Task: inverse folding
């Protein structure tokens, strides 16, 4: 933090809460994103939980120890709002900061800001860049060149735990809810670290968040790095969720083709039994060229599930060959480590899956245009 903003001040939020900030703005009023009028997406019961959770605690713990831990990470969470403030200052409280050699801190612990438009478009503005040596959270400000009403989305970090997020605006600024997505029901994507978003450079570039912008729809990220194993507890939970469409993308976490064969068809059957009309898309791994061990055997399992469903008369199931995502001259440039897609890889994945989502919804008579 630069020398000119070391001044400390305390800004009143209400009579019982004071927030310290080191930025020089003297007209700041902080607001908790847990409260109205903010539109908070993809967290379980956020007003009554000590941290932002992606799953109910009992479901996460019944699934596995790993999912219990990873469901505390805020991948895919976002908050939308509108304001005419000429700056946005965030203050995040983060009891666990994700750090790893294969992750940027901007992705694992940062928040990024998009400006939303009435047309449905959402454009990247900037990252609230976390300090390299931060502990317990951070504060950061983004200033605009003018004061006018704007609509925003802030994406939460991918691999950190967040207990509070406060948004600081000018004291006299307008504050209202964000723009609404085109459909009230979300798309849910379940899968591995690829769904989780492990090697994106910032939160907005995880493929679930890219899809949310492409479609102007809420896309829920239920990726669990190394722990997406289609266990009975998580399968039962997913089958009961009210959603517009479901994407199954856990190929990479099945320890071997045999495990995938034991779980994939039963997973599909559970989802279909619970929701006979739900569009379901099955996806295989994208990185066959750089990580091809057992790839064809795994693909056969997913294709077999798809063919079985079709043979049984299910016309609301689709298959996406992940190998098709990275074809062409950039085939070997789409991952960070041969496994996890980088920003290019995630964009190509989003392009391919978006096309299939639109096709599936169109064939189901659901308009999103």
Result:
């Amino acid at each position: 933090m630069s020398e000119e903003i070391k001044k400390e001040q305390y800004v009143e939020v209400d009579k019982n809460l004071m927030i310290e900030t080191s930025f020089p703005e003297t007209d700041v009023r902080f607001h908790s994103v847990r409260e109205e009028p903010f539109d908070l997406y993809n967290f379980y019961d956020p007003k009554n939980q000590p941290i932002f959770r992606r799953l109910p605690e009992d479901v996460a713990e019944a699934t596995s120890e790993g999912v219990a831990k990873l469901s505390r990470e805020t991948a895919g969470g976002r908050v939308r709002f509108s304001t005419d403030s000429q700056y946005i200052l965030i203050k995040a409280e983060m009891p666990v900061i994700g750090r790893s050699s294969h992750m940027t801190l901007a992705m694992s612990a940062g928040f990024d800001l998009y400006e939303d438009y009435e047309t449905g478009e959402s454009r990247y503005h900037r990252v609230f860049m976390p300090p390299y040596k931060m502990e317990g959270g951070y504060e950061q400000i983004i200033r605009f060149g003018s004061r006018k009403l704007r609509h925003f989305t802030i994406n939460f970090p991918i691999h950190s735990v967040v207990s509070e997020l406060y948004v600081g605006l000018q004291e006299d600024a307008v504050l209202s809810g964000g723009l609404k997505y085109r459909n009230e029901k979300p798309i849910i994507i379940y899968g591995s670290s690829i769904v989780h978003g492990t090697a994106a450079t910032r939160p907005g570039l995880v493929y679930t968040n890219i899809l949310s912008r492409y479609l102007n729809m809420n896309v829920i990220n239920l990726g669990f790095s190394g722990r997406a194993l289609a266990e009975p507890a998580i399968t039962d939970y997913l089958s009961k969720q009210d959603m517009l469409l479901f994407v199954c993308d856990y190929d990479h976490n099945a320890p071997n083709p045999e495990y995938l064969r034991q779980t994939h068809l039963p997973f599909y059957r559970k989802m279909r039994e619970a929701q006979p009309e739900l569009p379901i898309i099955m996806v295989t791994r994208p990185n066959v060229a750089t990580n091809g061990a057992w790839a064809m055997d795994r693909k056969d399992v997913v294709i077999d599930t798809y063919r079985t469903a079709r043979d049984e008369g299910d016309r609301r199931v689709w298959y996406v060959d992940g190998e098709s995502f990275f074809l062409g001259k950039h085939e070997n440039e789409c991952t960070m480590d041969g496994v996890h897609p980088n920003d290019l890889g995630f964009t190509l994945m989003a392009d391919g899956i978006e096309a299939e989502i639109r096709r599936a919804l169109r064939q189901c008579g659901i308009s999103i245009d």
Residues 343-363 form the longest helix (21 residues). The first strand starts at residue 9 and ends at 14. Residues 34 and 47 are 6 Å apart (CA to CA).
